[in-house]
Amino acid sequence: MPKLILFPLLLIQVGFAQTLTHQEKNQTVHTIADLLNKKYVLIDSGKLMSKKILINLTNGDYDSISGHEAFANQLNADIRSVYHDLHMGIYFKDSIKGKKRAFLNDVKNSTRFEWEVLENNIGYIDINTFLFHDPKGKRIVNRALEDLSNVDAMVLDVRDNYGGNGNMASYLVGQFLPPKTQISSVYKRKGSQMKRVKRYFSKGKIQHLQTATVPIYVLINDQTASAGESLAYDLQAFNRATIIGQTSAGAAHANIEKSINKSFMMLLPHEKSFNSKTQSDYESTGVVPNVSTDSEQALEVALEMIK
Length: 307
What we know:
- The structure is a single chain.
- The chain has helices at residues 22-39, 43-58, 68-82, 93-110, 134-147, 166-174, 227-237, 298-306, and strands at residues 89-92, 113-118, 122-127, 153-157, 182-190, 193-201, 216-220, 241-245, 254-259, 264-275, 291-292.
- It has a six-stranded mixed β-sheet with strand order 2-3-4-7-8-11, sandwiched between helices. Strands 1, 5, 6, 9 and 10 form a five-stranded antiparallel β-sheet that branches.
- It is of the alpha/beta class.
- It has two domains: 8-105, no CATH class; 110-253 and 270-306, Alpha-Beta Complex (2-enoyl-CoA Hydratase, Chain A, domain 1), CATH 3.90.226.10.
- It is built from eight helices and eleven strands.
- The longest helix has 18 residues, at 22-39.
């Protein structure tokens, strides 16, 4: 998984009235098409996306669009009509700048990684984002697991967790698997091929938690995305956890930010991670729970199952 995964649908756009020139439209479409063709993580889909917007440009489908915001929205609609990637988006820089800053400030102030021991010696960890970096994040995880090292069962709550640092999700997964288990491999787009660039192995700190005698339950819902999903997917793939709740969002790709020109930027998916057990991921399908229930009832269902 990548260092940082943001869920672009959370970056809500607001409109600004400016005039968009034909020259800028032409340059924007060709730059985006080139990136999709050369860098997008799904090679065949990238070619089709590129072809789609170039044909639309040639056919004059964008001629009547005069606003930057409307143009970005139309390009997104056209590209997503080929493949609806939740980690990809084209944005008008002027409209996204303030919203992005406000979003990141809100995340910074509301990041939650909390834990406690519930009745019947059940460990409970509530994680609303993985948007914290490795040294600090690993210290937080280690401290939580030390406090919960003697529990008889563990509940990991990633409902409404929209992602963040994939390294931290993999690190937490590794705490519940036998030492040196290969969790996943990360592949990055390199020209016309996908090449492996990283592998994740388990590095557990608490031996008691790495044994199958401590059952793990993961709570998810339809707002669980990206790195939040990877936690549930990987533990489920290794038969190490029971997943409870709703099917998750299905946003598995890692993205990077690309500047198109002075007006537009793009979040471009360029990496994907394959679980070592399934040789697949949760892109577009989401993580399907073992036990389906309403999001609000997921914790109650888990506690009943533990009893």
